[in-house]
């Protein structure tokens, strides 16, 4: 729900510093710092769980192997760059399109895993990538054909959609780096997310200083026309406390989403987490329509279901259905099938 919290913050209008006139809250890089603060809180959750495991042996955690924390620096830089680009794009397009277009990460992650990890994708995964491409085209057409207000002109919407897809390339590089260099060290997922959040929070916080002086032209959302104006953001928060509530909701939702996502993947499956993530898209879309932040277009429904089908195919959601259909086979085949399922399972594309 972090996208909805950020969109809520963007819809607030407040006066900035130095007596500037009222303007909308558009500070994507400061909001990205808040996202990393939410990820950083996962590190605190990890140490709390480890303290609990030390006091209660029945709640023991898996032993952690020693590792170099700098392994998380390259993925953190990718996360910082991709997130910042996406938050800039969120100011240009709708929250529902933002969430749907993020499904493009499947395309680039699949291609990069073949090129750099030597992985061989199954036919269903290639079909999932193809369906995702078709779904992205449909969602893009919906944005082109929708009515646009003065705040989001057609050129801005197109630019925002392209920036989101560009950011997914960076996010997919992050996933490949994590799988190649990080996951083999058996690092606890909460510790991995928290360490990346620490790097991202520190680096991006330092970058806010030069961003205060770098001109950004039409990409700027503050009166000074710079890449980011942190002082203006703090002045707006002071004059409109509801902005602080929205930012706090963003930080809390990031922390809860990562912690709950890891718990769901551990206790149930990565497929269940994917289904729940798809439900998040529906909730964001429904809230945006109910609050009048965007206009309804039928093509978005079609695009969403095609993207959902592509994600399901790529993550193997069709396999339980095929297993049920295969129950009518002779008993010998069923016994062999059960023996195969009883073997060790390795989660594929398990998100941290």
Automatic annotation (TrEMBL):
The keyword Coiled coil does not apply. Residues 330-340 have a biased composition (Basic and acidic residues). GO terms for molecular function: transmembrane transporter activity. Residues 328-352 are annotated as: Disordered. The chain crosses the membrane at residues 29-49, 70-89, 101-119, 126-145, 157-177, 197-214, 242-262, 274-293, 299-317. It is found in: Membrane; Mitochondrion. GO terms for biological process: negative regulation of mitochondrial outer membrane permeabilization involved in apoptotic signaling pathway; positive regulation of cell population proliferation. GO terms for cellular component: membrane; mitochondrion. It is a multi-pass membrane protein. Pfam families: SLC35F. Keywords: Membrane, Mitochondrion, Transmembrane, Transmembrane helix, Transport. InterPro entries: EmrE-like, SLC35_F1/F2/F6, UCP036436. Belongs to the SLC35F solute transporter family. Interacts with SLC25A5. May play a role as a nucleotide-sugar transporter. This is Solute carrier family 35 member F6. The gene is SLC35F6.
């Amino acid at each position: 729900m972090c996208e909805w919290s950020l969109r809520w913050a963007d819809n607030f209008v407040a006066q900035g510093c130095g007596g500037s006139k009222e303007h909308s809250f558009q500070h994507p890089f400061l909001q990205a710092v808040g996202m990393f603060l939410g990820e950083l809180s996962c590190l605190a959750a990890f140490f709390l769980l480890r303290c609990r495991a030390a006091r209660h042996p029945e709640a023991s955690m898996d032993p952690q192997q020693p590792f170099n924390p700098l392994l998380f620096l390259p993925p953190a830089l990718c996360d910082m760059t991709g997130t910042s680009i996406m938050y800039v794009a969120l100011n240009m397009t709708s929250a529902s399109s933002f969430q749907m277009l993020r499904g493009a990460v499947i395309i680039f992650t699949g291609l990069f895993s073949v090129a750099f990890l030597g992985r061989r994708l199954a036919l269903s995964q290639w079909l999932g990538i193809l369906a995702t491409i078709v779904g992205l085209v449909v969602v893009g057409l919906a944005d082109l054909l929708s009515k646009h207000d003065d705040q989001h002109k057609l050129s801005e919407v197109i630019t925002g959609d392209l920036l989101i897809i560009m950011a997914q390339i960076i996010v997919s590089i992050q996933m490949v780096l994590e799988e190649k260099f990080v996951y083999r060290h058996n690092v606890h997922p909460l510790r991995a997310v928290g360490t990346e959040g620490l790097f991202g929070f520190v680096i991006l916080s330092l970058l806010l200083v030069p961003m205060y002086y770098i001109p950004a032209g039409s990409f700027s959302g503050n009166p000074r026309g710079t890449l980011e104006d942190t002082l203006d953001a703090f002045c707006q928060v002071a004059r409109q406390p509801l902005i602080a509530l929205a930012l706090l909701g963003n930080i809390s939702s990031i922390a809860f989403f990562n912690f709950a996502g890891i718990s769901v993947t551990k206790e149930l499956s990565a497929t269940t987490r994917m289904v729940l993530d798809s439900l998040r898209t529906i909730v964001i879309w429904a809230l945006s329509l109910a609050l009048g932040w965007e206009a309804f277009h039928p093509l978005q429904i079609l695009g969403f279901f095609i993207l959902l089908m592509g994600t399901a195919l790529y993550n193997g959601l069709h396999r339980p259905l095929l297993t049920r259909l295969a129950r009518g086979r002779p008993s010998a085949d069923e016994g062999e099938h059960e023996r195969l399922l009883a073997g060790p399972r390795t989660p594929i594309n398990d998100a941290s």
